[in-house]
Design brief:
Blueprint: E1 3-8, H1 9-26, E2 31-38, H2 41-45, E3 55-57, H3 60-63, H4 72-81, H5 83-91, E4 100-106, H6 111-126, E5 131-137, H7 144-160, E6 163-168, H8 179-199, H9 216-223, E7 228-237, H10 256-278, E8 292-299, H11 306-320, E9 324-331, E10 336-344, H12 350-381
Parallel strand pairs: 1-2, 1-4, 2-3, 4-5, 5-6, 6-7, 8-9
Antiparallel strand pairs: 7-10, 8-10
Helix pairs in contact: 1-6, 1-8, 4-6, 6-7, 7-12, 10-11
This protein binds guanosine-5'-diphosphate.
The site of guanosine-5'-diphosphate has 20 residues, from α1, α6 and α8.
Domain Tubulin/FtsZ GTPase: 2-195
GO molecular function: GTP binding; GTPase activity
Main location: cytoplasm
Amino acid sequence: MKLAMIGFGQAGGKIVDRFLDYDDRTNSGIVRAAVAVNSAKADLIGLDNIPKENRVLIGQARVKGHGVGADNELGAEIAEEDIDEVQNAIDQIPTHEVDAFLVVSGMGGGTGSGGAPVLAKHLKRIYTIPVYGLGVLPGTDEGGIYTLNAARSFQTFVREVDNLMVFDNDSWRQTGESVEGGYDQINEEIVRRFGILFGAGEVGEGEEVAESVVDSSEIINTLSGGGVSTVGFASEDVELNSGGGLLSRFTGDGGGDDNLDAANTTNRITSLVRKAALGRLTLPCEIEGTERALLVLAGPSEYLNRKGIERGRKWLEEETGSMEVRGGDYPREEPEVAAAILLSGVTNVPRIKRLQQVAIEAQENIDDIQQESEDNLEELVEDDEDELEPLF
Ligand code: GDP
């Protein structure tokens, strides 16, 4: 699937930058164009791979290149004011070669938190291809204002995109490690998961065509219907067959060893599917009740078989209760077999309910503190008996 990616804010820009690097390393061909939008000049300069002409600085009149702090209302305002500048960069993209837009942002900050939903709304008005969001939730230790920003951005972003895929920084923090220190690793985990999902079906010339191909229309169908998505992932290292990898594709009905190989391959796939669905998801949630799912099995073709994928798919249908579970393979010459599962339309997500609760508390605290400091200031400035008159 070919995407036009737009990273909004610092996290968004860094993640899209990383997608370009992933594309380069794996030849997956998913990033047809990459744009970064920010109100902080330094963040744009810090990017490595996004072409300089695709880096758009917005809000110069208001914040002079210094960013919006964590003020996401200001982030939304300047995105609206400068939407033409963002559109100018998008005009350079050959959108007829693109299957969908992907707007990426951290939802806890200011620029991306406020700006990404504004951009999504704008894109949906102009283009007919789907507009997806990839939104990052802040760690719970980042504090009340980040949680409040994320809760408000989440609500708005879901409404404006065709589907919001969510990644929760909180559940990816290593114990004893600050989220900040681990961003590099976290971003790699993000691009790996979404890279495999979106890379399926993008088979380059001369590469093997998958036995049961996942193409972009299946990804689009899985994401259609809107709502919130999460991704599960599991992988196992395998040895690459130096002979070129047509070995076990033809096994199954042959001699004893071949049967054993086929059974191993099937078992490996089914256990990877279970691990991916029951392990750590990008957004932790109950998978039962998922509306639609897509299973992608990536790896050297001799380690993929239809039986394994079919079993994994059936198992997923039972676990999720969904009647719409798609599946297919994605042959690639990497020394691992990986299962990536897109669970679309999840609704039982306690993490979001907790986030909203904390956000409401933070909002009340902020209102109380503001009221209190207004009262305190008045008490300081005014004399007790109201005997003094201001000059004017
Ligand atoms: P903005 O530039 O004002 O949009 O704000 P940021 O993108 O810097 O930060 C928003 C939130 O994104 C933070 O609260 C973090 O939770 C998260 N964040 C910042 N940088 C990264 C990153 O590189 N990777 C990930 N996964 N999250 C990040």
